[in-house]
């Protein structure tokens, strides 16, 4: 998902390209807009959920709520201010 080389624009994977696009949009937005960006990383393998940002194994469950929509209960959220922090 990250690609073989983060420094080569042609070899970057999906996650670095998406992160670049998001921060490019934020940096090119109007001055009066305040942004808060959070990141979570979830692995789903053989119907098991794994929080890739948590140092400890955590039991995660997919939930649905009328206001929140579909979400993963217990998933770690980390605030990020630039692309380097995200990657």
Structure, described:
This protein has 87 residues and is of the alpha+beta class. It is 21% helix and 28% strand. The protein has two helices and six strands; from the N terminus they run H-E-E-E-E-E-E-H. The protein has helices at residues 14-27, 83-86, and strands spanning 37-39, 42-45, 48-51, 61-65, 69-73, 78-80. The strands form three sheets. Strands 1-6 form a two-stranded antiparallel ribbon. Strands 2-3 form a two-stranded antiparallel ribbon. A hairpin with a 2-residue loop joins strand 2 and strand 3 (48-51). It is globular. The relative contact order is 0.18.
Shape: globular
Q: What's the pLDDT, averaged over the residues?
A: 92
Instruction: Enumerate the strands of the largest sheet in spatial order, edge to edge or round the barrel.
Output: 1-6
Low-confidence stretches: none
* Percent of sequence in beta strands: 25-35%
Q: What's a quick, concise take on this entry?
A:
This protein is of the alpha+beta class. It contains two helices and six strands, in the order αββββββα.
Question: Topology of this protein?
Answer:
Elements: H1 14-27, E1 37-39, E2 42-45, E3 48-51, E4 61-65, E5 69-73, E6 78-80, H2 83-86
Antiparallel strand pairs: 1-6, 2-3, 4-5
Looking at this protein, list some descriptive labels.
6 strands, globular, 21% helix, two-stranded antiparallel ribbon, 87 residues, alpha+beta
């Amino acid at each position: 998902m990250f690609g073989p080389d983060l420094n080569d624009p042609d070899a970057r994977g999906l996650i670095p390209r998406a992160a670049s696009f998001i921060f490019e949009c934020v940096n090119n937005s109007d001055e009066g807009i305040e942004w808060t960006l959070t990141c979570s990383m979830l692995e789903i393998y053989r119907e098991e959920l794994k929080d890739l940002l948590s140092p400890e194994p955590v039991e995660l469950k997919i939930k649905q709520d009328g206001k929140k929509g579909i979400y993963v209960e217990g998933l770690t959220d980390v605030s990020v201010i630039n692309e380097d922090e995200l990657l």
